[in-house]
Amino acid sequence: RDELAFVMAHEAAHHIRGHLARQQRNATVGALVLGGLAGALGVSDGAVIQSAQQVGASVAARSYSKEFELEADALGTRITAAAGYDPLKGAEFFFRIPDPGDRFLGTHPANADRLRTVQRVAAGL
After folding, report:
1. What is the dihedral of CA 9, 11, 14, 19, to 10 degrees?
2. How far is CA 122 from the centre of its chain?
3. For a Cys-Cys bond, which of 10, 20, 77, 103 suits 87, CB 3.0-4.6 Å?
4. pTM score, two decimals?
5. Each residue's pLDDT tens digit, 72-110
6. pLDDT band for position 10 (50/70/90)?
7. In sequence order, which residues have a C-beta less than 8 Å from that of residue 98 and are 6 or more positions away?
8. Judging by beta carbons within 10 Å of its beta carbon (0-12, 13-18, 19+), is residue 15 exposed, middle or buried?
9. CA separation (Å) from 104 to 1, 48, 55, 113, 117?
10. Percent of the chain beyond pLDDT 70?
11. What pLDDT score was predicted for residue 29?
12. Angle CA(17)–CA(8)–CA(109) in degrees, nearest 5?
């Protein structure tokens, strides 16, 4: 129950913090920048420009992903506790999923970083 409450609170936190809209804006800016750069460098092939836009969108969308995840973990910890569940028990969920490590352009931070965030926030409640 605590794990489910934590996961639901984490996902709600993404919506509360506006992460989805911010990620979409970042992707749009990245697509415009890299697509525009390709055009400025003289690329005229539409397929190449479209590829540049896709790469720009992907990189930009991921640029704050780890930060967004840690923000959602922090707010999710508060929401979980306020709902009467134990966020520390809820964070045991991190032991059920593969650790993404700290890969370049990864979308999630290492599970240990996420757990430290939950522990830090929970200690202050």
Report:
1. 170
2. 20
3. 77
4. 0.77
5. 999 999 999 999 999 999 999 998 888 887 766 567 899
6. very high
7. none
8. exposed
9. 33, 24, 14, 15, 20
10. 96
11. 83
12. 65
Contacts of 18 (CB under 8 A, 6+ apart): none
Q: How many other C-beta atoms can be found within 10 angstroms of the C-beta atom of residue 8? A: 16
DSSP notation for the chain:
-HHHHHHHHHHHHHHHTTHHHHHHHHHHHHHHHHHHHHHHTT---HHHHHHHHHHHHHHHHHTTHHHHHHHHHHHHHHHHHHTT--HHHHGGGGGTS---TT-TT-SS--HHHHHHHHHHHHHT-
